[in-house]
Amino acid sequence: MTRILPAAAMLGTALLIALPASGQESGPAIAPGAETAKPAATVAPAPAESTAPASTPAATDPAVTAAIDSLSPLVEDVQVVGPWSEGERQGVWRTIMVQSPADETGYHFFVQQLEGAGTDHTVRASTEITEINQIDGAIVGYRADEPSPGAPSGLTLFFDILPTDGEIAETYELHFAPDTPYMFGPASN
After folding, report:
1. How far apart are CA 17 and CA 122, in angstroms?
2. What DSSP string describes 73-113?
3. CB 177 within 8 A of CB 155
4. Quick one: the chain helix, strand, coil %, rounded to 5?
5. What is the pLDDT at residue 39?
6. How many Å apart are CA 155 and CA 175, to the nearest integer?
């Protein structure tokens, strides 16, 4: 089964462990039992300008809040990976990685073709790339290649997949075009 390793989460955890907490100052080590001088006065922090919690924006659009609240916890990753155009029609490619509800280590990967502009998009097509769930390893990242001038409606993605029994990530590629079968497999140099 394929797993995604959130590199940002691992890096963030490493930084939290390695760095002192915000607002702490590192000073000289003090031997146990040694006396330390106490500050003469303590200054109270300035009152906050807002009474709203720091994590809640003051004026969140209700539509944005509804979209976030309705997002399934099984959705692990969503990315807009590039534009497409076909004559007068245009839009963007979006990828979605969803954790399998039946298997916590299994993932389903979808490519969606969204048509429209700005915030007015409709899903034109949605395709699951089933081979990704069959690879024995973890997706450590993926990236899109620029659309080629000869095929502006196509999409090429490169996946870095770390095999379960390996130490070096292998690269796979996905070639996707509307209304044609996709191609997925090990990258060819």
Report:
1. 43
2. TTEEEEEEEEEEEETTEEEEEEEEEEE-SS-TT-EEEEEEE
3. yes
4. 15, 40, 45
5. 37
6. 6
Distances 13 to 82, 125, 132, 142 between C-alpha atoms, Å: 30, 37, 27, 21
For residues 163, 156, 128, 89, the Cα torsion angle rounded to the nearest 10 degrees is 170
Alpha-helix residue ranges (DSSP H) falling in the chain: 7-18, 62-69, 131-134
Q: Which of 181, 169, 141 is nearest to 157 (CA)?
A: 141
Name the token pair of 164.
Answer: 């379960």
Tokens at residue 84, please? 């497409």
Phi/psi at 75 (5° precision): -75, 115
Mean per-residue pLDDT, 165-170: 88
- Is residue 117 within 8 Å of residue 90, measured between CB atoms? yes
The pLDDT value given to residue 53? 53
Q: Is the pTM here over 0.70, yes or no?
A: no
Could you read off the pLDDT of 50-107 as tens digits, one per residue?
455 555 555 688 888 888 889 898 999 999 999 988 889 999 999 999 988 888 778 8
What is the chain's mean pLDDT, rounded?
74
Q: Is residue 93 classed exposed, middle or buried when 0-12, 13-18 and 19+ CB atoms within 10 A define those classes?
A: buried
